[in-house]
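Tokens for chain A. Residues wanted.
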């Protein structure tokens, strides 16, 4: 009877119907064998896991409610974290977009991939660096990218491996595609092409970048209507304003900073609402269970914790502690990763879940496996610093920040002092780790990118200059 049940299931799978009588087995045995072959073949073809990589720009971990923030800023991301896996201590490998996004998609730290800024100018991604989108495309995935800042355009090499590449925006927060149309464009792409092919899509949200201009009701969701100062949704459009604060020439009041933070939180909640919409649309298409969803930040944002504002200047936790939530095959069940992990772990983890070979570079690991708390998580690469680079190493809850130029050191215990206020004596182990990281040879040569030409072309495309 089990044989007949299998035959019935095979009939249902193929849409064919046969009248079967148990007393007529000899006549229909050849047909049954054909059906069983069809059944075996269909069972042997497991559908590949889809991958949706959600990149949230300028979102620090401690401003998400699932990371303990006092405001309920991220109810949809919170739900995903509760169902999936949340990494409590994900370290960004730099404090600005170009090097961190390269790390996320390559699985390599900044000294290895070389993308970022040096004394010679801006550098893109070396073709010798492992590149997840290329590997996914070669494995038969439909690949698409929806990016919203100039530093992730084709000039810097981010287009490689993406069949559909859509990068919009300039280097500032002006004239950029907001979260809602970004989701619309992703969904439009999702509904085209061969729906039987698995997809790998990277969707980037830039809304939390200064100036903070979320649409209503999010813009005024957390602000005090009595505030009348200059630190509103227009502040930060000009770089001079931020430079004056970072130099100490201008000191914002407590009310000024409270208003900026409220506007920033509104941007995060707006982004969260659109992420919720995107995930709901995935489920409505029957793609929820077979899609690996990763939400990760590229860097955080400073609000005078160490005397400055915005990002790209330091490697303190307000700029390097980023959210990382993973849900879907292999990462469901409300799990928590308590040990420090890095953005460099993401590419190899995605490849492992997808069953694809990918070159991983030490210290990257597969986040589905056991994690060594003592491994060294590096960071380097700042945008605005003019007196040499910075390097940081996090290991077993301890952190060192080393200024390469003047050889100065800062050390902190992130478990007891997450705000990095109490200086400690740096350990020789972390000093050696920082020096070893800094002399790691690069993989290939990161190409020099003409920043002024790239920026001018983006502005011409937007119609701002001729």
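Reply:
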């Amino acid at each position: 009877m089990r044989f007949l049940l299998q035959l019935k299931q095979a009939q249902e799978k193929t849409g064919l119907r046969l009248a079967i009588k148990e007393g007529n087995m000899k006549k229909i045995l050849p047909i049954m064998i054909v059906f069983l072959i069809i059944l075996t073949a269909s069972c042997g073809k497991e559908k590949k896991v889809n991958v949706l990589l959600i990149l949230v720009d300028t979102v620090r971990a401690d401003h998400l409610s699932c990371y303990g923030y006092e405001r309920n800023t991220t109810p949809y991301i919170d739900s995903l974290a509760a169902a999936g896996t949340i990494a409590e201590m994900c370290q960004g490998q730099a404090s600005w977009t170009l090097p961190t996004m390269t790390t996320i998609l390559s699985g390599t730290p900044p000294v290895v991939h070389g993308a970022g800024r040096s004394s010679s100018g801006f550098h893109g991604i070396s073709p010798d660096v492992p590149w997840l989108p290329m590997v996914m495309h070669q494995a038969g995935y439909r690949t698409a990218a929806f990016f919203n800042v100039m530093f992730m355009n084709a000039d810097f090499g981010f287009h490689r491996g993406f069949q559909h590449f859509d990068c919009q925006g300039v280097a500032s927060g002006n004239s950029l595609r907001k979260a809602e149309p970004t989701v619309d464009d992703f969904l439009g792409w999702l509904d085209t092409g061969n729906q039987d092919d698995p997809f790998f899509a990277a969707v980037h949200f830039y809304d939390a970048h200064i100036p903070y201009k979320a649409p209503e009701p999010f813009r005024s969701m957390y602000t005090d209507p009595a505030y009348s100062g200059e630190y509103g949704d227009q502040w930060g459009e000009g770089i001079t304003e931020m430079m004056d604060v970072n130099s100490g020439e201008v000191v914002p009041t407590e009310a000024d900073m409270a208003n900026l933070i409220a506007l920033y939180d509104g941007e995060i909640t707006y982004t969260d609402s659109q992420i919720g919409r995107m995930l709901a649309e995935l489920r409505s298409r029957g793609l929820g269970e077979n899609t690996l969803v990763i939400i990760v930040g590229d860097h955080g944002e400073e609000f005078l914790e160490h005397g400055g504002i915005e990002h790209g200047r330091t490697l303190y936790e307000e700029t390097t502690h980023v959210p990382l939530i993973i849900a879907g095959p292999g990462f469901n069940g409300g799990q928590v990763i308590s040990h420090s992990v890095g953005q460099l772990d993401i590419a190899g983890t995605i490849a492992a879940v997808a069953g694809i070979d990918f070159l991983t570079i030490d210290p990257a690991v597969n986040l589905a496996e056991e994690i060594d708390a003592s491994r060294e998580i590096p960071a380097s690469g700042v945008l605005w610093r003019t007196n040499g680079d910075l390097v940081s190493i996090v290991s077993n809850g301890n952190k060192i920040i080393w200024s390469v130029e003047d050889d100065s050191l800062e050390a902190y215990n992130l478990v007891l002092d997450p705000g990095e206020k109490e200086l400690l004596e740096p350990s020789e182990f972390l000093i050696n780790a920082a020096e070893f990281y800094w002399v790691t040879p690069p993989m290939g040569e990161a190409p020099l990118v003409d920043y002024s030409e790239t920026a001018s072309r983006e502005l011409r495309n937007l119609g701002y200059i001729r």
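The chain has two domains: 2-44, 50-372+450-462. The chain has a mean pLDDT of 88.
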